[in-house]
Design a protein that fits this description.
single chain; 70 residues; alpha+beta; 3-stranded antiparallel β-sheet; 3 strands
């Protein structure tokens, strides 16, 4: 019998993958979303977390963007 799991495939560069892994590790065990790390740049996650991941990445980029003073 085949076991199938619905999920979301993420492909990104290594630093972004490490950011997502770190974010996942910071959550309580019951809320962790990474189902399987395929390699250093590909992962399989639960489908309902797509917007949450996008939001955290956007926040991270905003915090790490240089704005030239006026």
């Amino acid at each position: 019998m085949v076991n199938a799991t619905k999920g979301l495939f993420i492909s990104c560069d290594v630093p972004m993958a490490q950011f997502i892994v770190s974010f996942n590790a910071s959550l309580p065990a019951s809320q962790r979303f990474i189902l399987h790390m395929l390699d250093s740049t590909h992962m399989f996650v639960q489908p309902h977390v797509a917007e949450m991941i996008r939001s955290r990445i956007s926040e991270f980029r905003d915090q790490n963007t240089y704005d030239k003073p006026s």
